[in-house]
Amino acid sequence: MNHDFRQRPLNAAQARILATLMEKARTVPDSYPLTLNSLQLGCNQKSSRDPVMNLGEADIGQAIDALRECSLVIESSGSRVTRYEHNFQRAVGVPEQSAVLLGLLMLRGPQTAGELRINADRWYKFLDIASVEAFLEELADRGDEKGGPLVVLLPKAPGAREARWAHLLCGAVDLPEPGVARQDNLMTETGLAERVAQLEARVEQLEKVLRELGA
């Protein structure tokens, strides 16, 4: 049975740990599965992370316990040092391409299809943006019998050329109401208009002073 993130959503630490394991499995396979120390370093690294986090061993330990209960993370035995690996694709029931996109969204936050294709380069080489969009749309249209949608297309931000996608593994994303967005835009436009009017008035005053000085 696929994990239902609507019933048991991840918290921020769990999402970071799971996505870090998914990343390292593809980018540094020789060091995978990861030790607790390597996992902590990967979770807290400054690059390719949004937001940057500072998880302690206790935070990671608690998060791993919760992920193991959901069969999302597996503890490896047979080594002097305990190592951890993800079980994302099997537990969630998605193909590799979809798992890659979800992992990137957990690590880097909302992204456009184009950004996802570029950022996925070391994980999986998508042929084009259309193929990325196809897998995203499949994840967005995921049926209730499979655990429901796993991504959502966010409203296009003012001035943005493309809309961004966000994952739903940590629960529903708070979307701004259209009326609120329009009100914010109107307030911004009003503020700019007032600022322009003030500047025009100041220029007119300066020009008047210059004319009087030149008289």
Describe the structure concisely.
The chain has 215 residues and is mainly alpha-helical. It is built from eight helices and five strands; from the N terminus they run αβααββααααββα.
Q: Could you tell me the mean pLDDT?
A: 89
The tally of strands reads: 5
Strand order in the largest sheet? 1-3-2
* Binned strand content: 5-15%
**Count of separate DSSP helical elements:** 8
Give the full name of the CATH homologous superfamily of the largest domain. Answer: Winged helix-like DNA-binding domain superfamily/Winged helix DNA-binding domain
One letter per element, helices H and strands E, the order comes to: HEHHEEHHHHEEH
Overall SS class:
mainly alpha
The residue fraction in helices comes out at 40-55%
Whole-Å distance between the termini?
88 Å
Please give the CATH class of the largest domain: Mainly Alpha
Low-confidence stretches: none
Structure notes:
Helix 1 packs across helix 3 (57-69) and helix 1 packs across helix 5. The chain has 2 domains: 12-167, Arc Repressor Mutant, subunit A; 176-215. The termini are far apart. A 3-stranded antiparallel β-sheet has the order 1-3-2. By secondary structure, it is mainly alpha-helical. The protein has helices at residues 12-27, 36-44, 57-69, 88-92, 96-108, 113-119, 129-140, 178-214, and strands at 34-35, 73-76, 83-86, 151-153, 165-167.
